Amino acid sequence: MDGGCGATLETVRARMVGQQSDEKMTSMQKDFNVVKTDHEDRLKELEASVQKMLRSAVPGPNSNVVFSAPGDNTVSLKRVPIQQNRSESGLLLRLHDEFEKLRTNLQEKSKALLEKEAQLNETTLALIDAQDDLFRTSEKLILSDHKAATLEQERYILKNQVKDKTEKLDQALEKVNVSDTKISNLEKQLYKLVRSEANLKEEVGYYIWKLNKTAKEMKQLQANHTDLKAKHAKTKQQLRGTELDLMECYAGKTQSFCGFENDDVCGFTQENSTDDFDWTRGQGGTPSAGTGPDEDHTCKHPKAGHFMFIEASVKAPRQSAIMYSPKYRGFNGLCIGFYYHMYGRHVGTLNVYTKTENGEALESAWRAYGNQGNLWLEALLSIPKSLSKVGFQLVFEGITRNGYQGDIAVDDISVKDGECDSKTVTAVSVNADKVALDKLQSRRLRRYRQYRRQMRHNAKS
């Protein structure tokens, strides 16, 4: 039992003792009241009986006798005859005396009961003091029980600590036994190692002999490697020649011309993430008056032929539209030509860039700004051999100004092998990384080899 339970039990006991004492006091008070009431009732009954008897015994109407009963009640009797018997008078006197005795006895008993009541009150006070002492004793007992419970808990904790220490000691002893066993096993293994040392020496001699034999085989393999390396160099030279043939074949296919007459616009694509609007395929004139061409450059007719243009109406200044060409590639340098139309009071800028496959940034190739007149003009770009071999795309960027008369159009893009014939040609600079170009060439060579192996496999199957 802990301190809390002990305190509760002692408190309940003290309350029970107090309740029993209160019940005894209440019971004694009730008994006192019952006895007092009983005596008064008996006295009243006796007086009533006497009065009844006197009424029946006295016949005359001229005599009147009065008796006083205890308390405030007064009993009046009718008149008795003037002449009455002595025996009746003696009876009345005796009854009067008996009543007096009864009153005296009642008063004495009432006095005794009052003394008992006073003693009861004193006993009650003493009982209350005893209850207070019992309460204080209960509190001391509760504190003692609490201390005892605390000591018991501490003893339990110490017991658990001792138990834990004992378990740890047992574990340590067990580890010591395991360590002894391991040491014994290690000693046995050491003995086995000492015994096997001789066998190892013999094996070392065998491996030395095998190493010498392997060295001879290695020399033979090195000679074979030299032969294979020579064959590899020869094969590599043949592959390079084959690659040149493929490059020439590919260069022959790069001769192209685009007048934007088909719906696929020759494979040109729009930039959808970094620009503000798109290039538009048009026919005849542009929607805005006082700007743009009246007809395309290819067919030179308002109802025939198409071109690509940017519409400057409802555009904010410095907004751009970007368009990518297909990929171009050649073995030698290329000459790229295109026609542009920049007419109007608010014409902005037309930029042309080149972009390689591995290039993250665009390289500026050509630029025109402002009103160039209501006519189609030709621009020529000279693509160097290094850029042509890597492969590239043309990027057309149109930038608006503040006004609706700023339409820009392009048409008739041509790609030819060799250098440009005209003197008004713009040379395109190349800032591509040489290492990146070599990696690209190597990757394409690997793809060609894979293609050749696949073709051989298909031929055999």
TrEMBL record:
Cellular component, GO annotation: membrane
Looking at the record, the residues that make up the MAM domain are: 256-422
Where are the coiled-coil regions? 92-123, 148-238
Q: Which CDD domains match?
A: MAM
Enumerate the UniProt keywords alphabetically: Coiled coil
The record ties this protein, via Pfam families, to: MAM (PF00629)
Q: Which domain of life is it from?
A: Eukaryota
Q: Does the keyword Flavoprotein apply?
A: no
InterPro entries this protein is in? Answer: ConA-like_dom_sf, MAM_dom, MAM_domain-containing
Q: Does the keyword Coiled coil apply?
A: yes
Q: What is this protein called?
A: MAM domain-containing protein
